[in-house]
Design brief:
The chain is α/β, with parallel strands linked by helices and 255 residues long. The protein contains 12 helices and 5 strands. A 5-stranded parallel sheet has the order 2-1-3-4-5. Strand 3, helix 3 and strand 4 form a beta-alpha-beta unit. The longest helix is centred in the N-terminal third of the chain and has 13 residues.
Length: 255
């Protein structure tokens, strides 16, 4: 059986999601008997040209060059999987979408006229068709491994669609929102992390982005009832997945 030809691409991001592949450690040793990481700059310098059976894409699209590159990745890939909050909803970079980018350039760079940047940082799905999304900041290494194994077996990979609250219930957690009055995005956030933050008594900050049919406006109303200030509510949603459509419904109410 021929090896699966896999590429791992980086766009505007911190490399944290790519690192999750390496964090598989022992599992990765067994995977390389079945997978050829043909392009993976985090792990190797040698690059095998496409086409690729499976391409993982980390990061948002923030420059004109990245727009052309993601289109090239799409042309060379049978299947594209965006990985992490930056690639699925714009991530931290998308915070600048509400700001004056030209002003930032003038403050940060000694020669701002040399910098080419798009008005908005967007997920790759803005520019190309994406086949699957693996959410998180960073993405879960267990979820990445599960995806790869399902794909290798010829299955349609199953990814979470339910709210994080389901994982809280499965973990036996008390609801931090109901019991402690802690602001939590769990009711509108996609499952997949194992309810990591609520398991330690803090509210979910939504890095997996909105769940299917998430009722963000309903949660917004609940936060108002808790007497949170408008700016506090806005900042809760304007974090890792703030540029996603459902989270923006709340954010833009307070703009």
């Amino acid at each position: 059986m021929s090896k699966l030809k896999v590429a791992v691409f980086k766009f505007s991001s911190c490399d944290g999601c790519q690192l999750q592949f390496l964090n598989l450690e022992e599992e990765l040793i067994h995977l390389i008997d079945l997978i050829d990481f043909a392009l993976f700059y985090e792990a190797r310098t040698y690059v095998e040209p496409g086409p690729y059976d499976l391409s993982f894409v980390e990061g948002s699209i923030s420059t004109p060059h990245e727009v052309e590159l993601i289109k090239k990745v799409r042309d060379e890939s049978k299947v594209i999987v965006t990985v992490g909050a930056c690639a699925t909803s714009g991530g931290i970079q998308a915070l600048r979408n509400w700001a004056n980018v030209k002003e930032f350039q003038n403050y940060v760079y000694p020669r701002p006229e040399w910098i080419e940047v798009l008005k908005n940082a967007e997920p790759p799905s803005k520019y190309v068709n994406v086949d699957y999304e693996v959410r998180g900041c960073p993405a879960s290494k267990e979820q990445l491994l599960s995806f790869i194994l399902q794909f290798m077996r010829g299955k349609i990979p199953i990814l979470p669609i339910s709210p994080l609250c389901i994982e809280c219930k499965l973990s036996g957690n008390l609801c931090v929102l109901v019991v402690n009055g802690t602001p939590c995005l769990g009711p509108v956030t996609m499952a997949g992390c194992g309810a990591l933050c609520p398991s330690y008594g803090r509210g979910c900050y939504g890095c997996y982005g909105p769940s299917v049919d998430s009722r963000t406006l309903v949660l917004n109303r609940r936060f108002k009832e808790m007497e949170l200030k408008p700016k506090e509510i806005q900042l809760l949603f304007k974090q890792f997945a703030g540029w996603s459509r459902k989270f923006r419904e709340v954010i833009e109410e307070y703009e």
